[in-house]
Amino acid sequence: MQIACGGVTDVGRVRTNNEDCFRIVMPLNLYVLADGMGGEAHGEIASALAVETVVTHCLDAEANPAANVIGKVEPRWSAKTKRLSTAVHLANKKICKSAEEHPEQHGMGATLTAAWIDRSKLSIAHVGDSRAYLLRGGSLLQLTRDHSLVAEQVRRGMLTAAEAEESEMQSVLLRALGVQPEIEVDAEEHMLFPRDVLMLCSDGLTRVVTEPEIAGVLQAETDPIRGAEELVAIANDRGGPDNITVVIARMLKDSKGWFSWLRRGARKNLGNNGHAGGK
């Protein structure tokens, strides 16, 4: 199975700086997205630290499979899922350490959602309210659980989904990188099939674009870059109140024709998506 992928980040229509950051590491089929918080430029620092720490650890783990695993892991998890969870724990420690060494960075943090594809297996690691979605057969499934106050209230039956969308407490997170020295990381595995579409996004998209609209774009636009651009444009048309980042990976049948097209697209993606969020 071959993969066509791409990502776009945008400052939006209200913010003056972009605290989102993403990386696509095509040789590993690794996709990492973070949304920083902390004001001024500190959110940018936190998100960049988170993304770079995850990418660096995953690259190192490929060269050194015996590297230590950090945090709680399930025995049934694959090696890549364990590594991805470890990488998120390391990112949390890196952000905390930077804030300790630089008092002006106190209070900075980041959400993080990372996906690692190994053949037909998808590993996900997640903290915060950035999301991972899977489109399959026209149905859009949210793979991650938001670690926010309103999401928890919905899960407990204290709010309806509609009430949560209108709540002024949407930005209150119950879990984020950099807040505490130790963090609980959600990690899980899924099987992938040809024509599945994986999407990572920051909450700048999901606050203003509905899931049916997201599914419609992912179904209609087969080019990942154009699909991401279209979703960002919709969010901006609705005021762009936050930074917006969208990363799309489309599973393709393994055929010679598709492979040649992907090789042409791969060079473009590597050149445009190495860094985002001003880093």
**What's the CATH topology name?**
Phosphatase 2c, domain 1
Q: What is the total tally of β strands?
A: 10
Mind telling me the CATH superfamily name? PPM-type phosphatase domain
Mean pLDDT: 89
Which regions are unreliable across 5 or more consecutive residues at pLDDT < 50?
A: 257-279
- Approximate helicity band: 25-40%
CATH class value:
Alpha Beta
- Our estimate of the beta-strand percent is 25-35%
Supply the number of helical segments.
8
Write structural notes for this entry.
The chain has 279 residues and is an alpha+beta fold. It has a single domain, classed as PPM-type phosphatase domain (Phosphatase 2c, domain 1, 4-Layer Sandwich), CATH 3.60.40. It contains eight helices and ten strands. The protein has helices at residues 42-63, 79-101, 149-155, 161-166, 203-206, 211-220, 224-237, 256-272; strands at 2-10, 20-25, 30-37, 109-118, 121-127, 131-136, 139-142, 186-191, 197-201, 244-252. The strands form two sheets. Strands 1-10-9-6-7 form a five-stranded antiparallel beta sheet. The protein has a five-stranded antiparallel beta sheet with strand order 2-3-4-5-8, with helices on one face. A hairpin with a 2-residue loop joins strand 4 (109-118) and strand 5.
